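The instructor's notes for this session suggest beginning with a concrete chain rather than abstract definitions. Hand out the sequence below and ask the class to guess, before any prediction is shown, which regions might be ordered.
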Amino acid sequence: MEIRFDNKVAVLTGASRGLGRKIAMTLAEGGADVVIADVLDEAGAATCEEIRAATGRNASYVHVDVRDPEQVRALFDSVPRVDLVMHGAGVTVPENIIQASDAAIKRLFDINILGSSNVVRAALDKMLPQKSGKMVLLSSVAGRYIDKTVTHYRMSKAAMLSLTMSAASFAAPHNININAVCPGIVRTEMWEQLLDEKQKSMNMSREEAWQAMVGNLVPMGRPQTQEDIAASVCFLLSSYADNITGQALNVDGGQCMQI
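After discussion, reveal the predicted structure:
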């Protein structure tokens, strides 16, 4: 089974680096032209250059802060047609519920929750007249269960799951699929921030803290890779998922089974 995206246009937020970058590259390898929207201008431009060189597909970068609905609407207005959307822009607050500052919490909610709403709404405005399209939101297994850690991040990711289901219900009669992917433990820039806190609280080295978390949390005993997440997102954006909508796919090595 080969997944292809020939003649498709994909818009991706938060895809300058990390998981988003890998997803953008995978979509382009499958034949899609990609538009990357982010605030990391240098990284975004470099990623687009790499995609063009590696795949021969069109790849362009647009500076977009998802907190600003006008910037998000302008992004989608600038693209003649949008077939696929991957929303990956997000941040974390590694401190616990008491330690987190008011400013950090507001920024988190503005980006992760309001930003997600801005992207979904603007994408739907584009897709509804087309009567077609697929979206995937990058949530997290952190939004699937309760724990004393990263409380506000969990809240934001749970809100994204609710948004996914509600928006999918609205869009389904218009032949538009909206789903979420919930990564488990993937060693991205965001996890590096969490490791800063974990190694202090666990009184061990950074690598020891990483291995301990993987061993304690993941039944399969190994972290998830960027390739794992990209494959899952691309499946949900493909024609093989035409009858899947309003779902949240855990890619977590079984982590949520033991909660």
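Then share the key points. The chain has eight helices and seven strands. The longest strand covers residues 176-183.
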